[in-house]
Design a protein that fits this description.
The complex is a heterotetramer, with 2 copies of chain A (105 residues) and 2 copies of chain B (285 residues). With 105 residues, chain A is mostly beta strands. In chain A, 10% of the residues lie in helices and 31% in strands. Chain A is globular, with a radius of gyration of 13 Å. In chain A, 36% of the residues are buried. Classes of the chains: A mainly beta (105), B alpha/beta (285). At the A-B interface, strand 6 of A face strand 5, strand 6, strand 7 and strand 8 of B. Bound molecules: zinc ion (2 copies). Chains A, D: It is found in: Cytoplasm.
Chain lengths: 105, 285, 285, 105
């Protein structure tokens, strides 16, 4: 298989950066565009979203080649820190959630 | 004066009968609530239902911190306050509401702004702390104070149709800094005054904060091994999602193995915004 | 007198400001709440938070049905009642609490036992019905009456540490009889008086019932295609689970293609137990 | 594979019939004991539970060869009516929930 389909969800206000649409199906090459010998990683998905799905306010999503502080990343309902974070190797039909931490009350 | 008791009195047995007959709770669980103290920071949208259910449910001692006064625009979601308590300090207004239901609950209102000078001494007097506040600086302040005082922190937040719930610094789990070592850029932070909120949303999260606090003081979380983060959206399906959260981080600046934060710092400076900033954020996020 | 309005007045704009600035809700959503009527059947553990949040949140007209009086053993979970309303009818006590927060809400208390003779005419006067009752017979009665009157039914239930939530008869979805064509054997049914309940548990479900009702009257469920059943357990992980539910059943006796139930029946006989049975069940289930 | 492992959960009070234990891992033959030419069905799981995990009050779980009225059955978070009910063919690692409907308030 040369493409992966990733189910991406934006939540906690992140969806406002994406026309208020929470769920997206994203098709990505199965190999990393940064290094074609490697499988696609979470890093590639984040760059793909930044470069292909955003025209402005990119700094509200990405900062210093990772998500900005205040965004939690969830890989199949698990905190990405438990799954190699940016180096996580994407699998077909993975569900990735980007959630903005809320502070209101 | 709040004093621990060895057994429930007859009035408590009548009042809490439905909880006493629960096999997993029973008179032992109720007595633990009776002998527990919980500090609720914020008597707003989250604090309102949390305080009501903690007070009505039998927590012996409640502290309520809020420096703000009741305003008409609070009443759609802060259901512990009333038209007649408009203009009254929220901590005092909340105390009156608890006493209408359960006069024997020992409530102490603190009509103050929590900061680095007063947080630690206050938190040390309570068993569990609820973060029902509405700004980043106070969330870091409460986290660090709870770690330094060794108290579990039940943290809730709500905005628009979204809510989030986590228990920090409990059963070997992470603290707020383990998850969020760096504060968010101030322009990405919105409070309910600016972003709006549907009233029931903080209601749901606040009442779940009461549940988590009750479970902790009743000893129902003792066998808990993993730590989770609850995400809620009122208009989405599924409404709730439980996320498996990382554990405590060895290199956490406050709860890690070699902490560098050993006393409270300046949280307004650290976050670039304070507890009373009312100006609108640049971007609504 | 409850009359629909074409726009919010200035007091409502101040009071509901935080909901008015919500992009997905706005003044239009708030005006829909203002012009809606909701009937809450049961002012107990489920009804208490539901009524509070519906009344505070801006529903124009609330009907509250409860034939029971406030007892001290209710107060740990029925946080709409107070020590001073002990002995008062619960529907009246609940009305007083709503009016303390929002005096402009039109509340009608019905201190009656709902049955086949009065349910339909009452339900026809409201847009949405909340089932916040505690017995099987009334649940079938409310279901059939809502199907016959064409009203959505937001059904909640709670016992011990467990809660359940479903919206019936809405958006082409199933009714209670589609899911439960045959009532459970009476000896398998337990209410909160006999089985016990942790106070926050019905609190969580009741406030979610308020949310579902608000979404329906504000038109936020119009694009909803599937129907779900929410399961909650306060001591379990995950706390919440959303289940995909069957659709409306063609052969349902009341909402199906050839209904045989075209008027209300004798629900006590149908269920083998009534709304006021207080004897303990044989088996605690 | 000759055995299936099924994750069974009892909820809403059903767990009181099973020593207050909510989660059970049950190992079942992959073929139906009623007809060895067929794969195991949900019916077989229900009978297995009745015959092997209950000593009394069996009528509070099973009535007329199916679950008694008032119990909902969920197959991988879906109402069993959407999945052939008793005829559903079990798959390894299926999650089956038996939940007693609550009526309290
Ligand atoms: Zn930490
Ligand atoms: Zn039906």
């Amino acid at each position: 298989m040369s493409d992966l389909t990733i189910n991406v969800e934006f939540s906690g206000g992140m969806e406002l950066l994406f026309n208020n649409v929470r769920q997206h199906k994203i098709t990505l090459p199965a190999k990393s565009p940064l290094d074609n010998s490697k499988p696609a990683q979470l890093r590639d998905l984040i760059f793909y979203i930044r470069d292909n799905m955003m025209t402005e306010k990119k700094d509200l999503f990405v900062e210093k080649d990772t998500v900005r502080p205040g965004i939690l990343v969830l890989i199949n309902n698990v905190d990405w820190e438990l799954c190699d974070e940016l180096d996580y190797e994407l699998e077909d039909k993975d569900e990735i959630v980007f959630i903005s931490t809320l502070h209101g009350g | 004066l709040f004093e621990k008791q060895n057994q429930l009195n007859n009035e408590e047995i009548r009042r809490f009968g439905r909880q006493l007959i629960l096999p997993e709770f029973g008179p032992e669980g109720q007595l633990k609530l009776r002998n527990s103290s919980i500090l609720v920071v914020g008597a707003g949208g989250l604090g309102a239902p949390a305080i009501l259910y903690l007070g009505a449910g039998g927590i012996g001692k409640l502290g309520i911190v809020d420096h703000d006064d009741v305003d008409i625009s609070n009443l759609h979601r802060q259901v512990i306050h009333k038209e007649r308590t408009q203009g009254m300090n929220k901590a005092v207004s909340a105390m009156l509401a608890v006493h209408e239901i359960h006069p024997q609950c020992h409530v102490t209102p603190y009509p103050i702004l929590l900061d680095s000078s007063n947080a630690l001494s206050l938190i040390k007097q309570y068993d569990v702390v609820l973060d029902a506040t509405d700004n980043v600086a106070t969330r870091y302040l409460l986290n660090d104070a709870c770690v330094l005082a060794g108290k579990p922190l039940v943290s809730g937040s709500a905005l628009r149709m979204d809510g989030q719930l986590t228990v920090y610094n409990h059963n070997g789990g992470p603290c707020y800094r383990c998850i969020h070592p760096v504060p968010p850029p101030p322009e990405t932070v919105t409070n309910c005054s600016d972003g709006g909120v549907l009233g029931v949303i903080p209601g749901v999260i606040g009442i779940l904060q009461a549940l988590e606090a009750i479970k902790i003081v009743a000893g129902l979380t003792e066998n808990q091994t993993s730590h989770s983060f609850l995400i809620f959206n009122g208009c989405y399906s599924p409404m709730f999602r439980s996320i498996k959260l990382r554990g405590k981080k060895e290199n956490c600046l406050v709860c890690g193995e070699n902490p560098t934060i050993t006393e409270l710092i300046d949280y307004v400076e650290f976050c670039g915004s304070g507890a009373t900033d009312k100006e609108a954020s640049l971007f609504v996020l």
